Amino acid sequence: MHKPDDLGSHPDREHIEAEVGFEQSDVKMTGILVFLVSLGMLVAVAAVLCYGVGKVINAHLNHEDGPNTKWTQAVNIRQLGNMPSSPEMQNKVAELTQQFPTPRVQTDDGNQDVADLHAREDLLLDNYTWVDADHTKVRIPIERAMELLAKQGLQVAPTVQLPAAMAGDDRPVIQAPLTSGFAPTAFEQEEARSAAIEAHERQESK
Length: 206
Fold this sequence. Notes:
2 strands, two-stranded antiparallel sheet, 6 helices, mainly alpha
């Protein structure tokens, strides 16, 4: 057992001065200086190696590309100044930015695209339009086509003599009508309902 008085008189323990405020034996400046010097030398060696490797790569690229010409020399664009703006080119750029080529990203789950498609179909179904660029054939409205078909009827195709069916074969049976016709989507129905309400409110306001 050692007494407290014996600890202070140990030969391996250095004397601590009270006026310093800390134990001087814990601070080793030599190790810190050696680390900093080694780090600086490592950074310097790495910089020299990177510079040398860059020189070698540039020399190899210059050898592969050949001598510089007027097409390979770098041009300082600041010397050219500001190029004059063209209103026509600006309008063209604005049109391109507003109308990108298809396919475009849909922002409303395709509802507006389907509505636009049905609107174009309605224009073709309800109006007279030219079929070809030479204006030799015309497309008539569907209501007029139905009236003509009701008056004149359809041309009857000649009867085709079908061969006798083999044992176990069934003839295909076509059930008419093949389709229930055009039906607007829910999005189009909501737009039509909103347009009808707005028209009714405008009439009441008058």
